[in-house]
Design brief:
48% helix, alpha/beta, seven-stranded mixed sheet, two-stranded antiparallel ribbon, 547 residues
Length: 547
């Protein structure tokens, strides 16, 4: 009878704890990337924690309960809103890697993401999600409480169990907001240690030999953003999204089977700027990165970025900071054409040059990635495009905006090639995108998410241009456009083009080497072939996700 009375008196507390602790695990039942057993384990652990906290709160006065529950609300609301938003946006439970990416997202990127995906209903849902528990705390009435000395065994057991819930890692990982802050702490510690190790690496000897007779005067690397080759007419897309590059097709090497090692910018850039890969992540700090390698070879190194990296310290920023000359044009908040003036000036610099240009490309929100004059595609007017399933007006507009961004990127790349045409020296340019993008290509989803990876998210364009005098210098290179390749091996290929040799160089991993050997490719920890197979199987089921 006493238990019934306690539950009746404290029912609002019980409901509050259920709301805070059980809502996210229960809704994770809709996640497509979590086994049912793992979900049930999460619910069981959360229910256990609820019981322990409820028992502990019985030793608090109403005032201290409100303070304690307000602290619990503040601790859980941000992770809860992120987990719930991700569940309803992508139908998946956010992974550790994606949580870490959130910590490195800059303000502008966050605002654009919110403007793209946050509709009025979702805004209302998030507001109610936060408001409801706040009202519950306010409504909690005066209650009787237990004194510790009268129930010291219950109190001691509750404290011990709470400590065990938080200290035993497999258990703590089942509590969504505890796991969120654990990932944050791990990320911060890892970032500090990596930055220190990279800085210390600069002081260690590492010999890089340069074959001057084979080296280009200018090696330009252009890194795009979120551009899928499946939306380029150069690769067979129905819309004419890359007319200028197609017109130059005879002078380009257009590689047809290149994939990214991940589907988020941060892990991809960490990979392409270093020797780190799935098998050897430690190479990020143990071996030279791109700019360090070329600095040691005597190249002048330049970075022109339209992606901000000052307001948020990303985990690849220490690799970018090794460039000898850095120009950040992102503060103007303009489409990528803003890089052309800086690139033109940089191309005039004397000596051998490695120039890396980092674009905003086709990053969400797509409509901000091009000027109004490139607002050309409009599915409201018949253009021969067919969709695998009926698109809403909003989805149609999104596809149009994405294709307009691809069209603008085509103009930009043609403009860059025009600048290179004026160079009177051996030059090479490589263009690729960090990762691809899925834009309602076979299901009701636009964006990229490691938790629901598809082939559209990792299949990227990879285009090589060479001046005539450079081609004459390097008859030993092989250019086969059908070679299967992952951009995680970019440093080996750039070393080959630049005529560099050093301890650890492996010609079998250079896309242009006669000794090239195809390797198994991974997207995250998943084999690329399995990603393709899963995408095809999903597509054949003709099952559509509805947000």
């Amino acid at each position: 009878m006493q238990i019934k009375t306690i539950l009746q008196e404290r029912k609002l507390q019980l409901f509050f704890l259920g709301y805070i602790l059980l809502l996210v695990p229960t809704f994770s039942l809709i996640a497509q990337n979590i086994p049912a057993g793992a979900i049930m384990a999460g619910i069981a652990v959360s229910f256990g924690l609820l019981t322990v906290i409820f028992a502990l709160s019985s030793f608090m006065t109403t005032r201290y309960i409100r303070v304690f529950y307000s602290f619990l609300l503040a601790l859980s609301m941000i992770p809860g809103a992120i987990f719930m938003g991700y569940l309803f946006f992508a139908r998946v439970m956010i992974s550790e890697g994606s949580i870490a990416v959130l910590f490195e997202t800059n303000v502008e990127e966050s605002k654009e993401f919110i403007s793209s995906y946050l509709n009025p209903w979702m805004t209302l849902g998030i507001a109610l999600y936060i408001l409801c528990p706040a009202v519950m705390i306010f409504k909690m009435k005066h209650i009787t409480f237990h004194r510790v000395k009268e129930h010291k065994h219950l109190f001691a057991a509750s404290v011990l169990l709470l400590c065990l819930f938080l200290a035993i890692e497999p258990v703590a990982q089942r509590i969504y907001f505890v796991d969120f802050y654990r990932v944050f702490a791990d990320y911060k510690v890892r970032s500090v240690l990596e930055e220190r190790a990279i800085r210390e690496r600069q002081q260690q000897p590492f010999e890089v030999a340069l074959a001057g007779s084979q080296a280009p005067q200018t090696l330009l690397v252009v890194i795009g953003e979120s551009l899928s080759r499946n939306h380029m007419s150069l690769y067979g897309y129905e819309r004419d999204t890359s007319p200028l590059l197609t017109a130059r097709r005879a002078n380009l090497k257009v590689y047809r089977d290149v994939v990214s090692p991940q589907v988020h910018t941060i892990p991809v850039i960490r990979s392409v700027l270093s020797f780190a890969d799935l098998a050897h992540p430690e190479y990020l700090t143990q071996r030279p990165s791109l700019f360090e390698l070329f600095n040691r070879a005597g190249y002048g190194t330049y970075l022109i970025s339209n992606q901000p990296f000052d307001d948020v310290s990303s985990s690849y920023e220490p690799l970018l900071r090794q460039a000898g000359h850095i120009v950040d044009v992102s503060k103007a908040n303009h489409p990528d054409g803003v890089v052309l003036h800086e690139l033109e000036q940089t191309l005039k610099a004397n000596g051998r040059k490695l120039i890396v240009v980092h674009l905003m490309g086709s990053h969400t929100a797509y409509r901000f990635r091009y000027p109004p004059s490139f607002n050309r595609f409009d599915r409201r007017e018949p253009d021969g495009m067919e969709s695998p399933f009926p698109l809403t007006a909003s989805a149609q507009a999104t596809v149009d905006q994405y294709d307009n961004s691809v069209l603008y990127n085509d103009w930009l790349m043609a403009s860059i090639l025009n600048l290179l045409d004026r160079q009177r020296e051996p030059s090479v340019m490589i263009y690729f995108s960090d990762h691809g993008e899925e834009v309602y290509d076979f299901r009701d989803f636009a964006g990229h998410a490691a938790e629901k990876v598809s082939s559209y998210m990792c299949e990227v364009p990879f285009i090589v241009w060479m001046s005539g005098d450079y081609i004459k210098k390097r008859p030993n290179l092989v250019f086969r456009e059908d070679r299967p390749y992952s951009t995680c091996d970019l440093l080996y290929s750039l070393s080959d083009l630049a005529g560099l040799s050093y301890e650890g160089y492996d010609p079998a991993r250079s896309l242009f080497s006669p000794q090239f050997a195809a390797r198994e490719r991974f997207v995250g920890a998943q084999p690329y072939e399995s990603v393709v197979r899963n995408t095809r199987e999903y597509n054949s089921q003709k099952w559509i996700f509805f947000r």
